[in-house]
């Protein structure tokens, strides 16, 4: 199972411990793994991708561990009872209850992203959790859906007054080329997205 565990020093007084996990659904196997990992690693924040939950099922996130609060978005439109194809998408955060007073949910326009804002001591952190589309294998252009997700992530950064911005999650295969092409496209067509600091 793909999971990373990274302590990130963002303030002299404290480190923020992040984990990320592409769960490919939230069946019993995945929810058991998440509960065990949260109990063992005790991260401040868990970034989940591919939850495969409908909007009406997002409350399931809050029951994954009693020490964690949750927020997520669905990648799937609500459908009839029968799903004809494989479910897809969905991103979420679980953050430790000790951060409840200092964590704020940031609304995102793109359902491939969710974001939270955490104030740690004197440092403000914007965390963006992404599930980007698969690589289109083009050497000259980025898939429109990938570009839209990247634009949305950059807009969150630009509109934020955070000291630290972290983009995590599943950025798709070969993200370096996609990100380079995507950033070049933004630079050429949307100079307004860049903010001087």
UniProtKB/TrEMBL annotation:
Pfam families, per database record: Exo_endo_phos
Domain Endonuclease/exonuclease/phosphatase: residue ranges: 28-171
Single GO MF annotation: catalytic activity
InterPro entries the UniProt entry points to: Endo/exonu/phosph_ase_sf (IPR036691), Endo/exonuclease/phosphatase (IPR005135)
Taxonomic superkingdom: Eukaryota
Protein name, per record: Endonuclease/exonuclease/phosphatase domain-containing protein
């Amino acid at each position: 199972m793909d999971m990373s565990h990274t302590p990130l020093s963002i303030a002299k007084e404290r480190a923020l411990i992040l984990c990320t996990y592409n769960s490919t659904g939230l069946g019993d196997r995945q929810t058991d793994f998440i509960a065990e990992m949260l109990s063992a690693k005790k991260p401040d924040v868990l970034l989940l991708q591919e939850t495969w939950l409908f909007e009406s099922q997002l409350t399931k996130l809050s029951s994954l561990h009693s020490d964690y609060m949750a927020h997520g978005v669905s990648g799937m439109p609500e459908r009839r009872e029968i799903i004809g194809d494989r479910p897809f998408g969905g991103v979420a955060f679980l953050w430790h209850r000790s951060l409840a007073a200092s964590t704020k949910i940031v609304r995102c326009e793109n359902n491939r992203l969710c974001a939270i804002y955490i104030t740690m001591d004197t440092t403000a952190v914007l965390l963006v959790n992404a599930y980007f589309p698969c690589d289109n294998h083009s050497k000259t252009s980025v898939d429109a859906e990938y570009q839209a997700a990247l634009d949305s992530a950059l807009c969150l950064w630009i509109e934020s007054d955070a000291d630290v911005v972290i983009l995590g999650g599943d950025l798709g295969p070969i993200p370096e080329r996609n990100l380079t092409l995507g950033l070049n496209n933004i630079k050429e067509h949307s100079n307004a997205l860049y903010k001087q600091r």
